[in-house]
Write a sequence for this structure.
């Protein structure tokens, strides 16, 4: 098996009936940057930037961030590099930021909420990303969006960052593609509207499962409910895919479920354009994609999502994976 997977790693993944799925990697710490090899994936589908803020005594400067993003963009060559703006808060805290203690941090002051309320912090990062855009196929992604207003505010901040760079006469990528993480039920239900304002969606299933099933992703006691096969989650993902494609928007998945073997046939059926996975799982993910017939899976997927029973859905999904070989 391992050698079959290794063979698939460097080749484009296509279903048996010819539909392409890009398989990217998730990255976002020193080690994953050092070991990143663009020849063994289709790009970076999620570049988490929290690590730049975490191992520090103070906020990272524009130059420091720019060097890291540029290095990664150059390593990626022409392949896509989706840089996610700061997603701090929730489970990730920073001493120097002086954030309030909260009783429900995952429902609190985190991610885009912090960035929109601290324009200097946000602008510094946006300028660094814009500048790195000159050195590769860089895209920018906003996390934790729950309404259109947040997205529009974030985009207007991006325009302000461009004006600042214009003023300083520093080179940057003017037409940088903008996308959002779809990781809240709010974003799922608004995906038809949000799609009109972005060039891609990336489904953050780690948080989407948490928020859809009202199950803290860190709480051991309720992990039995934190289930990627909860049909509410799968139906949400179907809705996002439909709304994305109806608007010509690309859709990816960058949570852990992107590489869950029994769900990969489903992702193919739903027309997911890109899966972003842990680097060691690229080969296996591409291999499974190559075994699937999208057309055959479409009908089975509709039946499965109508069944309402999680155990039945899991049994059916395992059966399908078994048939693929
Ligand atoms: C997610 O929520 O699925 C995701 C990829 O982001 P993170 O795990 O960093 O919250
Ligand atoms: Mg998330």
């Amino acid at each position: 098996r391992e050698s079959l997977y290794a063979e698939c790693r460097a080749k484009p993944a296509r279903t048996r009936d010819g539909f392409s799925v890009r398989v990217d990697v998730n990255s976002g710490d020193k080690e994953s940057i050092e070991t990143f090899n663009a020849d063994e994936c289709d790009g970076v589908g999620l570049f988490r930037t929290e690590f730049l803020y975490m191992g520090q005594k103070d906020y990272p400067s524009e130059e420091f961030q720019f060097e890291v993003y540029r290095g990664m963009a150059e390593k990626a060559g022409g392949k896509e590099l989706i840089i996610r703006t700061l997603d701090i808060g929730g489970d990730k805290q920073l001493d120097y930021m002086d954030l309030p203690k909260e009783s429900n941090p995952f429902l609190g002051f985190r991610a885009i909420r912090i960035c929109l309320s601290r324009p200097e912090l946000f602008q510094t990062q946006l300028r660094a990303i814009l500048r790195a855009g000159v050195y590769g196929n860089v895209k920018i992604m906003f996390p934790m969006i729950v309404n259109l207003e947040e997205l529009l505010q974030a985009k207007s901040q991006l325009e302000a960052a461009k004006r600042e760079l214009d003023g300083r006469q520093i080179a940057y990528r003017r037409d940088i593609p903008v996308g959002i993480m779809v990781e809240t039920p709010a974003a799922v239900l608004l995906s038809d509207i949000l799609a009109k304002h972005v060039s891609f969606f990336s489904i953050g299933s780690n948080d989407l499962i948490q928020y859809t099933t009202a199950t803290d992703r860190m709480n051991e006691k309720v992990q039995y409910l934190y289930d990627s096969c909860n049909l509410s989650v799968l139906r949400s993902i179907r809705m996002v895919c439909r709304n994305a494609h109806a608007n010509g928007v690309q859709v990816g998945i960058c949570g852990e479920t992107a590489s869950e073997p029994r769900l990969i046939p489903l992702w193919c059926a739903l027309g997911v354009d890109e899966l972003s996975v842990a680097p060691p799982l690229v080969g296996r993910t591409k291999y499974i994609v190559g075994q699937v017939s999208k057309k055959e899976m479409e009908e089975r997927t509709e039946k499965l999502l109508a069944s309402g029973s999680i155990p039945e859905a899991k049994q059916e999904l395992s059966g399908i994976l078994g048939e693929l070989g």
About this structure: The mean pLDDT is 96.
